[in-house]
Amino acid sequence: MTRMHKARPLSMLMINAWRWGILLALILLWEAGSRMGLIDPFFFSSPRQIWDTAVIKWQSGQLWRDIAYTASSTILGFLLGTSIGSILGLLLWFSRRTALVAEPWMIVLNALPKLALAPVLVIWFGIGFSSKVVLAFLMTVIVSIMSAYSGVQTVDPALSTLMISLGAKRRQIFTRLVVPSAMPSIITGLRVNIALAMAGSIVGEFIASDRGLGRMIVYAGTTFDLKLVWVGVVVLSIVSVLMYAGVVLLERLLMHRWSARKPE
User: Fold this and answer.
1) Which residue ranges in the chain fall short of pLDDT 50?
2) What CATH number is attached to the domain comprising 112?
3) With b meaning 16 or more CB within 10 Å and e meaning fewer, what string describes 3-24?
């Protein structure tokens, strides 16, 4: 038993070492290829040039303001879309007829290319913060409704019948059986939603914005400042990974709570 406990952390240590080692090797190869002329430094830049450019933008205050802007619109759209969509999906349990009417509309709205609405949303809500939040919200709300509704459909009818026979009201069945049963489906949709919210915010900034990482990338591309383009891409990748890691942690905490919860 002791050997198994020791072997598992050791294997995870080796896995993490390989992960970081591959990343470091790619960075070193990128830098070496740029300096040796194997890759064109104008188009592909180099890790050192990207770092120097990022430091200059950070010291000027522009970079951290753009990071805060993009992260704020993404997180706010994610929270609004996930919470409102989950509530709406759960409420469909109260009316089977309403759920059957709404189901094809949910499928159509989910298939709708919502990113194509970005120019319209910018016209409606302006080039500021609101249009980015609305687009991130639209990217996540339908997915959340469908995830919650899928969870509602997994409710065991036998348990529902048992609670009714014991005198439970519909509100009690909803709060003590339906919500806990649907929560795993809702939680597993969080990883998808954070990526969709980020895509919505960035596309909104691509269309029209006065700040943000997406605006930085578009502006740098139009001025042929490819080093700044790579700064935006790298920073955006780091922000995306951090947000994803945060959602994974939140998912584990929620899953631990709800998986252990039993209907009363």
Assistant:
1) 1-2, 4, 260-264
2) 1.10.3720.10
3) eeeeeeeeeeeeeeeeeeeeee
